[in-house]
Structure formats: C-alpha cells, structure tokens
Specification:
- The complex is a heterodimer of chains A (about 220) and B (about 220).
- Chain A has about 220 residues and is mainly α.
- Chain A has one domain.
- In chain A, helix 1 packs across helix 6, helix 3 runs antiparallel to helix 6 and helix 3 packs antiparallel against helix 8.
- Chain B has a domain of about 120 residues: Rossmann fold (3-Layer(aba) Sandwich), CATH 3.40.50.
- Helix content of chain B is about 30%, strand content about 25%.
- Chain B is globular.
- Chain B starts with a strand and ends with a helix.
- The model of chain B has no long low-confidence stretch (mean pLDDT about 95).
- Classes of the chains: A mainly alpha (about 220), B alpha/beta (about 220).
- The interface between A and B is medium-sized, with 24 and 27 residues.
Chain lengths: ~220, ~220
Amino acid sequence: MIGAAGAILRKDLRIELRAKESVPAMTLFTLTVYVLFHFGLDRDSLDGELAAGVLWVTLLLAAVIGVSRLFAAEREQGGIDALLLAPVDRTSLFLAKAAALYLFLAAVEVVAVPAFALLLLGPGLSGTMPELLLILALGNLGIAAVGALVAALAAETRARELIAPLLLLPLLVPVLIACAQATEPFLRQDQGPEDLARWLGLLTLYDVVFVLLSVAVFDYLLED
Amino acid sequence: MDPAIELDGLERRYGERVALSGVTVSLPEGATLAVLGANGAGKTTLLRVLAALLRPHEGTARVLGAELPGERWKVPGKVGYLGHEPLLYRQLTGRENLHYQARLHGVDGSRVSEVLDAVGMKRRADEPLQDLSRGMVQRLAAARAVLHDPPLLLLDEPRANLDPAASELLESLIGRSSGRTRVLVTHDVEGALAESDLALGLKAGRQMFLGKVEPAAVRELYR
C-alpha cells in the first residue's frame, strides 16, 4: 500500500511541477486576499484574534482551491479507472492525495506566512517560529485528511465545484478554531503561549479521528 | 477447463435506464468474443462490467474464476483494458506513464522498455503525451494494457487512430496472435467477425445473437 501511495504521490507532484496549476493558484489567491485585507481593513497592522482569524480563514479558502483540483487529473484522464484496474489497495489513493495536498499547503505557506507578516502583522514572527510551524503542520494534516476525502466525494459529482467547498468548510470549522486559538497568543504584542497544549491536543485529536475515518470510508467512495 | 468468461442473464442499469439485460455468454480461454452493436447498445458497459469497474445488478458474471461483484477484488491485475480513454496522463511522458503503471502493477521496470519497443514508441517515449499524435497515444495505451501481461484483454475500438503499419505492429500484443482471451468491441463488423470465435450482438442492451454469424445478420443491429 505504501509503495503504491508513493508512486501515486510522485506522479501527482510531477504533474504539478509540469502543469503548475494548484500551488501557484493557491499562492496567488492567498497573496491577493492579504492585499485585499491590507487595504480593506484600512489598518497598518493587525494583531491578536483578528490577525489569527485573517491568517487561517485565508489559508482554509486557499485549501478549497487545492481540494477542487486534487482529483482533476484522475477525473479528466481516467486515472481512477487505471488505479481500479491495478492490484492496489484503494487506501493508497487516499494516502497519496492527502500527502499531495499537505505538501501543496506547505508550499503555499512558505510564501503566504511571510507575506502575511509583511503586509498585515504588527508584531514580528521571528521568535515564534517553532510553535507556529507545529500549529501549521497539525492544521495542514487535518485539512489534508478531510480535503482528500471531500475531493474524492466531489470528484464523481457533476456539481463538484460547488460541493467541495460546501462540504469542506463546515468540516474544517474545528481546525479553524483550534489553529486560530493556538496562533492568537503568538500574534499579540505581548507574545506568549497560552493554552497552546489544549489547542494542539484538540488539533491532534481531530487529525487522528479524520485520518482514521477517511481510511475507513475511502474504499466505498470509489464504488460505482 | 473453466471458461474465462461466463455470464448468465447479466443486467446492468444506470438509474432507471437498463443498459444491459439478459446477456448470457460463455467464452473459453484463449478465444475472442466480438461485441457488435450500434452506439448506445451497451458494448462499453459490458466491457466495464467485465473489468470489474461496474457492478452487475442482476444475473451472474464470472471473470477468470472470480464471481462478480462479490470477488471483484480478484480481477484487478488480470485484465488489460483498452477503452476510449488512454488512461494515461498527458503531462507525463510515455515512459513516465508506463513506469507509474508498472509500479502500480508490481511489474519490473525493464518491462517498460520491452513494451515501448513492441509498440514502436521507444524513440518518442520521453515526450509528454500532449505533444504526441492520437495514434501514438493509442500505441502507448496498448502498451499500458499489456504491460502486466494480462490473460484477458478487453478492447474497445483498439485500432482507433492507428495507421495500418501501427495496427500490424500491435497485432502480436493485442491481436488474435497474442494468444490471450479477448473481448473486442468494434464497428468494423467484417474485421471483427474474421478475427473472432464468437460474436455477440447487442441492441439497446439486449442480446440479439451469440455465435458465428454472417455480416448480413449483423446489419439488423444497426437499423
């Protein structure tokens, strides 16, 4: 299963490197939204809850773009049929798609987080990087697990562009709450970890539940 | 010896619409079944049921000893499917596509060069599919279908977009001389009858005939 998942992931990354569809679109979207907030809020800088909310809502909306495109190559070029004709566990497709989405999100954040700090953030991020990276890593895992599941569900429907965000965003509300709450203390002038363990615990629990749930149900999503 | 394919009263629906009904076939190993019929007769649906990509809704279906749908996990890896779509990624090269398929099928990478050579695509194997002609992509799709050396080939218009030379080149891989059990869907009635042991006629999903027939009998399917 891991070997097949690795092959699918390598194929997805190669296609993304050639086609340059998801990551550039997600990154451009994120940067555009931060610029819009910069001018729309008419403030030189944000901090605390507002900053955390802007950071995470924008990242979640960017994830919607990635989720909508996650199965595009399979859908348009018969990749799912090819996979079903091969003697591989279907869970490998879930693992590969979740890993691809995770890497896409991480690539977006490499640009988006510094851009957010530059355009909108009052206090700097330099002293908070280890904690912020941990929050981003756990947040990405939850988004990737749910995103791969929703993408597979939406892929076989006609209104997939509508269904993906309508299913994805409500399911990601706990991720948004936990990530924003965990990040908020680090985006204040008087920075410091506040209830960090509690929110990271909630994120970890969410990640474990949704990874297990997705692995359990993914096989049935590919049934005709 | 058990037949490679055994269907009895096979039915498949899409919602309320019946796509296949009462299809009964027994195909021995190594034989070729030609499936004939007008557009929308259910030919592609039949191939997809045999490939375990679609579930049968009524009747019994046994493919290479696997009862469908209960044992359909036994079918993947044993079938070579060449349909309307090449099932290859246009952003990747032919070689990359085949290496990807080889990994999914647990086939050694050296087999990729072998099949590329067999379909005459070794020279253009490192170009993305989007830069190749449809005939070349069809050759690569044939290479994909036989990469894992399957005992059963399900072929839907396999010679579409191929020039005569390419068609001849693929004969040993997907033609009668391949020695594999084959189910062949095509609109080339005379060609299909010449290279098949049995012909199945479908009209609006219903079986009209099964056996050795004359081309004149097939014309009724298209009226």
